[in-house]
Write a structure and sequence with these properties.
Length: about 290
């Protein structure tokens, strides 16, 4: 059964580790992440962007696939199905379809409007007993065509939004989506510390987890980050493994063209990548 991300993230926040959010794109992705979570006795959050949900046919298909997979694969670790960077309408639709966790990203609205819409979302998610992630200060890079600039969130705005009663808060601290550029300045730890102090016991979320060095991850966790989003990194690992298989001509040998064989190296690469992140984030054996 899918669960709200609230308990797993509150435990992580108190225990000074983080739960990974790994974005899914299809059945192979989902299966690889769920099996790895179970093998490592780790809680896990499956992230689904609106674009990925559309790609997989829609929110209902995603909920149906994931819930059935939990049963068929005997997954017993806590699993939350989370809408990533949801719009107002997307959040309503995903909730209706059965997602157990929602991110409403109102960071592109003026703060008053972000607060008004997030307030509504707090009420709606509380009625359903599901978790809610809000965002303050746009996170840079590109997510489903929404481009931001690696901002540092305003501490007072973070405080205001956390006090609405959101489960978790994503705040820009110089992190960006996708690959980090050569001249990246690193995470703004002073800002993170201020935000953590201002937001009480609300766990914080670090978006754009791809390629952030391990020591920065550890420091971010020590300063209140309890959820780390990983998306691009798994895509790159899947791509590399698939490329190697084809470049080695394995798709031309025997039944190497069989999609179950063709996608197997990428599947294993995702599993290895997720395991590595779970170890780095400290969520192994925390289910
Ligand atoms: Zn993000």
């Amino acid at each position: 059964m899918l669960v709200s991300a609230k308990d797993m993230l509150q435990k992580a926040y108190e225990g000074k580790y983080a739960v990974g959010q790994f974005n899914i794109n299809n059945l192979e992705w989902t299966k690889a992440i769920l099996l790895t979570a179970q093998e490592n006795n780790s809680p896990v959050i499956l992230g689904v962007s609106e674009g990925a949900a559309k790609y997989m046919s829609g929110y209902k298909t995603v909920v149906g696939m994931v819930t059935a997979m939990l049963e068929d694969l005997n997954i017993t670790v806590p699993v939350a199905l989370h809408l990533d960077h949801g719009s107002y309408q997307g959040a309503l639709d995903a909730m209706e379809a059965g997602f157990s966790s929602i991110m409403f990203d109102g960071s592109h609205y003026p703060i008053e409007e972000n607060i008004a819409k997030t307030t509504e979302m707090v009420k709606l998610t509380a009625e359903k007993g599901i978790s809610l992630e809000a965002e303050v200060g746009s996170i840079g890079g590109e997510e489903d065509g929404v481009v931001g600039k690696g901002e540092i969130a305003d501490t007072e705005e973070c405080k205001q939004v956390a006090e609405l009663g959101v489960t978790i808060l994503a705040a820009g601290i110089g992190n960006i989506h996708g690959k980090y550029p050569e001249n990246w300045q690193g995470l703004a730890f002073d800002a993170l510390e201020d935000i953590n102090n201002a937001t009480g016991d609300t766990p914080l979320v670090l978006h754009g987890g791809t390629g952030i060095p391990g020591d920065m991850i550890a420091r971010a966790i020590s300063l209140g980050v309890a959820k780390i989003n990983v998306n691009t990194e798994l895509q790159l690992e899947f791509q590399e493994a698939t490329r190697k298989y084809i470049e080695a001509g394995k798709d031309l040998e025997g039944k190497g063209f069989d999609p179950r064989k063709l996608l197997a190296p990428g599947f294993e690469a995702i599993k290895a990548g997720v395991k590595e992140k779970m170890e780095l984030f400290g969520s192994v054996n925390k289910a």
